[in-house]
Specification:
It contains 5 helices and 7 strands, in the order E-E-E-H-E-H-E-H-H-E-E-H. By secondary structure, it is of the alpha/beta class. Strand 1 and strand 2 form a beta hairpin.
Length: 166
């Protein structure tokens, strides 16, 4: 897996002070995409053990409330197990909450076993493609009104979409 950017301190992509990982690679073509250069699966740097060790050490700080994963498209990171393994390591090593953003919708993610494995390790999903005509700067943690903020674990248990109450 390649990544395009790590923001050590971010308040725009989830509740609290977060560390945000922007993975590289996306097969979607959302009009108005704000990370067009991140669509290339080889953009940026290769995620390696050293990067992961530094990342886990940083997010272990009590100043960091959680991790947010954006892209590119996180749910296109299914060519290998790098992202699912990272999510498992985040939970095991730090137990920080994980927000993940996707142009896919929850209902489609759970149909693919590899994508569902990524989803199951996370806490909050902001789903749906950015839609330029539904753009609304007043929305918290999302760009357009079609996007939902979903409590993943409750949704999986109840077998229906449970929206996260900010």
């Amino acid at each position: 897996m390649y990544y395009s950017q790590i923001r050590n301190y971010d308040t725009a992509n989830g509740v609290g002070i977060r560390t945000t990982l922007f993975v590289s690679g996306c097969t979607r073509s959302c009009e108005g995409c704000f990370n067009e250069e991140y669509k290339n699966f080889r953009n940026g740097l290769l995620w390696d053990k050293e990067t992961e060790t530094k990342f886990l050490k940083h997010i272990s700080s009590p100043n960091i409330n959680g991790v947010s994963i954006l892209g590119g498209e996180p749910f296109d990171q299914i060519r290998d197990n790098s992202l699912v393994n990272l999510i498992q390591h985040i939970k095991f090593e730090t137990n920080k909450n994980i927000w993940i953003y996707s142009g896919y919708v929850f209902e489609d993610i759970i149909k693919n076993p590899k994508r569902k494995a990524i989803l199951k390790g996370c806490d909050i999903l902001v789903d749906g493609p950015f839609e330029k005509t539904l753009k609304d700067a007043r929305l918290s943690f999302r760009g357009s009104s079609n996007q939902r903020i979903i409590d993943i674990q409750k949704s999986l248990i109840q077998n229906l979409i449970v929206l996260y109450d900010i």
